[in-house]
Write a structure and sequence with these properties.
CATH superfamily of the largest domain: Nucleoside Triphosphate Pyrophosphohydrolase
Radius of gyration: 33 Å
Distance between the termini: 91 Å
Helix content: 25-40%
CATH class of the largest domain: Alpha Beta
Pfam families: NUDIX, Nudix_hydro
Protein name: Nudix hydrolase domain-containing protein
Structural class: alpha+beta
Keywords: Hydrolase, Metal-binding
GO molecular function: ADP-ribose diphosphatase activity; metal ion binding; NAD binding; NADH pyrophosphatase activity
Number of helices: 10
Organism: Glycine max
Length: about 350
């Protein structure tokens, strides 16, 4: 057992070291800290690195302080992160964490990342970790985008112009021009949306799903809404409009499809009615006649059906990452290049 005489100088050394470490105006030199640590650890406890003092979370103990001065990168606990391809880091919180602990870790992490010259810091928080959102916002992070299962926040930490990419600016939709040998076009009346209840016959349309190709989406939408099986032929036109869906722009691709079945089975949940309509009757609708875009689009579809117009066909090609993707091109003028 340590005598009271041994405890007294040890307590005095501990007090002196604590005062030195808590000074905010300057940092004590490593040699001075090492001397203090050495003087306050009793001989019977062995070397300083085996003094028995436990390491506390997010702080250095006096017993290991001298060692940590030699390896500064080990002195600060930081959030686990992986580097991205643009000089930044991505933090994916996977375990439950107290918001105050997260705030402290985040502050120390930003200091270290800034010293290493990192730029953008991305934090991905699942719904289970929504308690950390407030701490991240207070640390300077902003919302970048959200998905059903997570929120992505971002912060540009250097004192240089922010070059982080904005959230996706466009959504993609398709329309299908499907005509049979009797020159009848496949049309629907929607149960919901801006055209519902107006008696307007229109082309099948819909959004492109995440990871879905334009040509595949057009075939899927026609099948879902009308029950008709089709084959993609070409993209015959596309248009862009802005601030159409939660302030996002929209790219709308019109596809020519060839029907392979003809019996209609409408989608009850979204489609009020569906039919094969004579192209003359479709074009005679006031909605089509008075709408320059729809009138022009119908004329393009007819011209393609009669072999007087060429759109964009697809070819499956490889990218630099060896992934396969569809490439759209004018087959009439560039088809010989595939030979």
């Amino acid at each position: 057992m340590m005598s009271s005489r041994a405890c007294k100088p040890f307590s005095s050394s501990l007090l002196a070291a604590s005062k030195l470490l808590l000074k905010s105006s300057s940092r004590a030199p490593p040699l001075q800290i090492s001397a203090l640590v050495g003087s306050m650890v009793p001989k019977i406890q062995g070397p300083k690195n085996s003094s028995g003092f436990p390491r506390s979370y997010m702080s250095a103990t006096l017993a290991s302080l001298a060692k940590e001065e030699e390896v500064p990168s080990k002195a600060i606990d930081t959030l686990r992160a992986v580097e991205d391809q643009h000089g930044g880091v991505i933090v994916n919180i996977e375990e439950p964490m107290d918001s105050s602990v997260f705030a402290s870790l985040l502050e120390d992490s930003i200091l270290q990342w800034r010293e290493k010259g990192k730029k953008g810091v991305w934090i991905k928080l699942s719904r289970e970790h929504s308690n950390l959102v407030d701490s991240a916002v207070k640390a300077g992070f902003r919302f970048h985008h959200a998905e059903p299962d997570y929120l992505m926040l971002v912060n540009w930490i250097p004192n240089t112009p922010d070059t982080l990419p904005a959230n996706a600016s466009h959504r993609v939709a398709v329309g299908a021009f499907v005509m049979n040998a009797n020159r009848e076009v496949l049309v629907v009346q929607e149960s919901n949306g801006r055209f519902s209840g107006q008696g307007i016959w229109k082309l099948p349309t819909g959004g492109v799903d995440e990871g879905e190709d334009i040509c595949t989406a057009a075939v899927r939408e026609v099948k879902e809404e009308t029950g008709i099986d089709t084959q993609f032929v070409e993209v015959i036109a596309f248009k862009e409009r802005h601030k159409s869906f939660f302030r996002k722009s929209e790219l709308f691709f019109v596809c020519m499809l060839q029907p392979h079945s003809f019996k209609i089975q409408r989608q009850v949940s979204e489609i009020e009615a569906a039919q094969w309509m004579a192209i003359e009757d479709y074009m005679a609708q006031p909605f089509v006649r008075e709408n320059e875009l729809f009138d022009f689009l119908t004329k393009i579809g007819l011209s393609k059906f009669d072999g007087k117009y060429n759109g964009f066909s697809t070819v499956l090609s490889s990218t630099s990452s060896r992934k396969k993707s569809y490439f759209y091109f004018n087959n009439k003028d560039a088809g010989h290049m595939l030979a």
